[in-house]
Amino acid sequence: MSHALLSPSASHRWIECPPSVRLTEFMEDKPSPYADEGTLAHSIAESKLNNYLGYTDKSVKCEDTSMDEYTDDYVAFVAEQMRVLNNPSAFVEQRVDCSKYVPECYGTCDTLIISDGVLHICDLKYGTGVKVDAVGNDQLRIYALGALEMFSCLYDISTVRMSIFQPRLSHCDTWELPIDELLKWADEVLVPAAKQAWNGEGEFKAGEHCSFCKAKSTCRKRAEYNLELARYEFEPPTTLDDIEIAAILAKADELVSWVTDVKEYALRQALSGVTYEGFKVVEGRSNRKYTDENAVVDAVKNAGFDPYEHNVLGITAMTAMLGKKRFNELLGGLIEKPQGKPTLVPVSDKRPAVNTAQEDFMEVK
Question: How far apart are CA 202 and CA 59, in angstroms?
């Protein structure tokens, strides 16, 4: 499937770092089993939704039990969104032209629901690696602009509603935006960034948006961004003041990610013949394994022993075996979620803060 150079799906990156587009234009895309899985899930969801809407009478069922249930959940979510609108129309896998704002830009909305006053875009995210929020989502805003160009002559639209449905993370997020705010964002943020990106202009900028950039392993700006931490000598934390520790914490995850990306890139290059002074490629550690498990079972049984472990399946495996609905019927009352281990995260994280020792002391006092 071809993609626009300034694609909506990559818009967060090229809005933040416009010159990255031309830098990576001819870099090869690496195939991913996760991308293939997502493509299959979208195809199943599309067929099921078309069947639900009466656009086809073909019934679809996925052999993967989990995917079958997750895509059913997505169809149910879309149906629920339609019920709250007055005489809605739904468009599945609707291609929209966004070139009024971004050169040669187009995209495909998973589901586009429209009625007088409201345009609602529902986007299915099947991955589990990153939780995606609807609020401030650049991809959905670009889709909305393209949809407005297509339907504003037929509908009097005043509000855009944008939803992310991410079933494998039990995550659903909806953001509503007045049309004038969307158009203001387009004029003040999107159009200038798109112009710079198209022309290969602007300043390189490193940040969390680097994670899906094809140049993330070799980008000098990202290296400079992370190597700023090298000014700290990393002596025991007691020698650092609170401001310095906060500065390190703010970039620690990105630093770890960058170092991992560089190491993986260097290994690929070394395996292809590149030599790095002071380093060599060696065979990593490995664990012993059986060459024929069936033969092992037979040999152990013949010796009078039981070769199997007998443990209750984990929750994920049990859900896959029973199916989510049956799992909830049988075991819903037998599941608990213990309190998680305290974790230090940025204040932008949506999880509520837990009481600290100081706060507990203040409450007692």
Answer: 50
Contacts of 48 by beta carbon, 8 Å cutoff, 6+ apart: 60, 71, 72, 74, 75
CA distance 164 to 53: 20
pTM of the model: 0.77
Nearest-angstrom CA–CA distance, 311 and 16 = 49
To which H or E segment does residue 325 belong? helix 324-331
Whole-number Å distance between alpha carbons of 102 and 8? 9
pLDDT tens per residue, range 169-221:
999 999 999 999 999 999 999 999 999 999 999 999 998 899 889 999 999 99
Measure CA of the first residue to CA of the last residue in the chain; give whole Å.
Answer: 63
Strand pairing category for 157-166 and 106-115: unpaired
Place of tokens 């870099």: 27
A 10 A CB-CB count for 179 gives 15
Confidence check: pLDDT of 39 > 90: yes
Measured CA distances, 193 to 5, 14, 219 (Å): 14, 7, 20
- The tokens describing 34, both together, are 């996760």
The residue behind tokens 């703010």 is: 250
Phi, psi angle pair for 129, to nearest 5°: -70, -40
Query: How far is residue 239's CA from residue 250's CA, in Å, rounded to a whole number?
Result: 18
